[in-house]
Amino acid sequence: MRGNAEAHELIAPGSLHAVLQVLAEGPGVWTPIAGGTELMVAHAAGRLSAKKLLSLWGIPDLRFIEAGADSITIGACTTFRDLRLDPAIAAHFPLLAKAATWIGSIANQNRATVGGNLVNGSPAADSSPALLVYDAELELISVRGKRRVPYTEFHTGYKKNVLAPDELVYAVHLPRKFAAHRQYLRKVGTRRAMAISKVELAGTALLDTGVISEVRFAAASLAPFPTRLYQTETAVRGREISPQTIMAGRNALLEEAAPVDDIRSTAEYRRAVAANLLEEFLRSLVVEQPR
Amino acid sequence: MSADWPAIDLVVNGDRRSVQAPPMKRLLDVLREDLQLTGTKEGCGEGECGSCSVRLNGELVNSCLVPVLQAHGARIQTVEGLAIDGDLHPLQQAFLNCGGAQCGICTPGMLMAATHLLASNPHPTMTEIREGLAGNLCRCTGFKRIFDSVISAAAQTQDPMANEAHAR
Which of residues 3-62 of B touch A (CB under 8 A)? Predict the structure, then answer.
């Protein structure tokens, strides 16, 4: 361990109310830490710049899954293990349940939280593509109150987001409107467990007599933050699945994707694979879904 | 300075322990340095290898990623808590019998991950064993003998609670 534990302060006020008070009294002073699967890695390596940390772990008000009539609400400190075990998530948002199974290992899933995955803002965040194609909405909280932002508007740049210095992500809302949609999620990485993705693509699509009437695509590792692929959606919406539609989708995606070369892969590989994943999803739509 | 550090209360392998430590000290380092429980190993120090696996309130965690303040009041089980008075846990015996341990660095973590798996799933399939141990790396065995060890321990267990009951 190259980090120095004595150089960092960590407090655990214990309740959501107390945490928000601390943030309000010193906006920007405190860095929230939930399960620590990201910040503790930086800490061990001696590159954790935050000196004052505020624990969100073990606050019941932030760790819950609430199934309402129109939506399911997930508290920000819900772990990926919690998501995997929840029957409502498995039944109504299977892509999210699937993503939860390939986040790190069991030990990581027991600590890593949904809110942490989003606030950390990695371009490769495993849960993001599923949340994007499910029209997730984030609820943010501070002593000033709560506000909601569509998840599509949360990230504003590489590791940047719309959170004010005194704000936390409180919960993720998922509207229950995708039951009839065909759904797709695939991650490509060096191994199934542990590996950070080279590229990940999610999709939801509604077909009306063979025509794509509603469609959402989202990807990780194709841009500085996880993003919806609006141009690609436009290219295939209102069309039947045909070689021409698939080609139009591929071309739009290649145009829209802005991946980088890094230690895990190359931009060229990421583009090629993302287009192949898109084609795999579109081709699967031709097959009648068993009812 | 140490007088300013908070008292952290833990129940480690069934015993109440209290340490004064910087709250950002890793649970791993508290176990090894403050409590002299050096069975838990540091491998990568970044949650990738599973060598430092322990159970925290029954959940498998990488102790290198847990700031000790977040373990305040928790039950911790380490590899030292598996054998009772020299009587090996069925998984430890199975690792011995099947050659599941070679150099030994990954073994404590493997044992904790396997204990965690069998606690909720006493007779796992090979796929479930592979997933349950996917966060634990071994550079000696090629994993096959480790998986065989888990299958062997599970096969000996008729009573689903026996593995859990053995562990304090």
Answer: 21-26, 29, 42, 45-48, 50, 53, 59-62
